[in-house]
Automatic annotation (TrEMBL):
Pfam families: LMWPc. SMART domains: LMWPc. Keywords: Hydrolase, Protein phosphatase. This is Low molecular weight phosphatase family protein. Residues 2-191 form the Phosphotyrosine protein phosphatase I domain. The keyword Acyltransferase does not apply. Belongs to the low molecular weight phosphotyrosine protein phosphatase family.
Length: 199
């Protein structure tokens, strides 16, 4: 099992959208092998997904059934393979809480850039294969490979690491969230899909 945790502030807009879209897309490739969950650093615990974010999720083909916001706790970080933060603030909060996760914690846009850099580097050996064991090994190695690219993929503009927070803002900001988030998620999914297409 590959365990991924997505993190934002309230856990009602950005991180649940990332959770549900990633889970759906990974299930299309390898059902049952990925577990994607989410939490918030100041969660609106017990609340359902924000209605406008939920509507956009449904437009994108995602499903919000049963979603309930939860407050980030240390136990949520105990066995994760990868933490995907929606912004630098969330990434830093995770590292303050559990410094040992340094090489497994990224903003989602940051990791998407790193995956591109890994794919473009013939010197890096990315584990191949499509068995459960091989896929798990690839994703357990990915954060280490990505960390090697952390410096060279640093953004010129720090905003390139952020997914805009739309909560209680205009519809345009919700659309901007989707514009920021979905291409990064797709890049991570395409990274895995490429190994199955070439198999």
């Amino acid at each position: 099992m590959i365990r991924i945790l997505t993190i934002c502030t309230g856990n009602v807009c950005r991180s649940p959208m990332a959770e549900r879209l990633l889970q759906q897309k990974f299930d299309e490739i390898r059902p049952g092998l990925f577990e994607v969950r989410s939490a918030g650093i100041q969660a609106l615990a017990g609340k359902p997904m924000d209605a406008r974010a939920e509507g956009l999720l449904h437009v994108l083909g995602g499903n919000s059934d049963g979603f309930v916001a939860r407050q980030l706790q240390e136990m949520h970080l105990a066995n994760v393979d990868l933490v995907l933060a929606m912004g630098v603030e969330h990434r830093d909060r995770i590292l303050n809480l559990m410094p040992r996760l340094l090489k497994r914690t990224f903003t989602v846009r940051e990791l998407a850039r790193m995956v591109d850099a890994i794919a473009a580097d013939p010197q890096l050996e990315v584990p191949e294969g499509t068995s459960d064991h091989e896929v798990e090994y690839r994703w357990k190695r990915l954060p280490h490979l990505a960390a090697l690219k952390r410096y060279e993929t640093r953004p010129v503009d720090p905003l390139e690491d952020e997914i805009v927070d739309p909560y209680r803002r205009d519809d345009d900001v919700y659309r901007q969230m989707v514009h920021d988030l979905v291409p990064a998620l797709d890049r991570l999914v395409d990274f895995e899909r490429s190994y199955h297409q070439s198999a």
